[in-house]
Amino acid sequence: DAGVIQSPRHEVTEMGQEVTLRCKPISGHNSLFWYRQTMMRGLELLIYFNNNVPIDDSGMPEDRFSAKMPNASFSTLKIQPSEPRDSAVYFCASSSSSGTTDTQYFGPGTRLTVL
Amino acid sequence: GENVEQHPSTLSVQEGDSAVIKCTYSDSASNYFPWYKQELGKRPQLIIDIRSNVGEKKDQRIAVTLNKTAKHFSLHITETQPEDSAVYFCAAIYNDMRFGAGTRLTVKP
């Protein structure tokens, strides 16, 4: 298995631009998680899906952030418009359980820099 | 919601010594406590986890203990090796999920 796949691995954009991060979970996993990691705030859960349905989006910082999971093998996290404070590493993780209380496998992350 | 505190923020030990990292949590409903290791520039990887119906779990040189009454849990690494150097994160999970701020462990050869 290839594990969780994220793209792009690095993204540099200018303030105000739209950014789309992509994630392919491990085949057969039915829960998907989006995290943001910064030095200041550590690792934060943004949103998670179960069977393609958003379960908890309370960690999404504001309306500029949106996430979708149109099918079991693909999810996107979109930031529009992007701001310099959005610069962070964004991780996607997946799990075979239907909730949060099981092993999560992280992708390699997308390092986002907003100038 | 859940709040997780992790100590120490940095820890330096000699190779072969033991390392202990402690976390406290606030939500008594939390019932799953994973520990992740993150090497520089890499993804977090689960190294061990414990559930609320268990007090201790061991996997080779790594062990985790849980005290539900006191709401704290700890990671113990014995016979540390330089490759154990990384940032370690704890988490407390029920419906809410919170990570500790991380502990940077350095093992000196």
Structure description:
The complex is a heterodimer of chains A (115) and B (109). The mean pLDDT of chain A is 94. Chain A is an all-beta fold and 115 residues long. Helices cover 0% and strands 54% of the residues of chain A. Chain A has strands at residues 5-7, 10-13, 19-24, 31-38, 42-50, 53-56, 65-71, 74-79, 88-95, 105-106, 110-114. The N and C termini of chain A lie far apart (36 Å). In chain A, strands 2, 4, 5, 6, 9, 10 and 11 form a 7-stranded mixed beta sheet that branches. Chain A has a 4-stranded antiparallel beta sheet with strand order 1-3-8-7, with no helix packed on it. Chain A is built from no helices and 11 strands. With 109 residues, chain B is mainly beta. Chain B contains no helices and 11 strands. Chain B has strands spanning 4-7, 10-14, 19-25, 32-38, 45-51, 56-59, 62-67, 72-77, 86-93, 97-99, 103-108. In chain B, strands 2, 4, 5, 9, 10 and 11 form a 6-stranded mixed beta sheet that branches. A 5-stranded antiparallel beta sheet of chain B has the order 1-3-8-7-6, with no helix packed on it. In chain B, a hairpin with a 6-residue loop joins strand 4 and strand 5. The radius of gyration of chain B is 13 Å and the shape is globular. The model of chain B has no long low-confidence stretch (mean pLDDT 94). The chains are: A mainly beta (115), B mainly beta (109). Chains A and B meet through strand 5 and strand 10 of A and strand 5 of B.
Main attributes of the structure:
heterodimer, A: about 120 residues, mainly beta, seven-stranded mixed β-sheet, four-stranded antiparallel β-sheet, 11 strands, about 55% strand, globular, B: about 110 residues, six-stranded mixed β-sheet, five-stranded antiparallel β-sheet, about 0% helix, about 60% strand
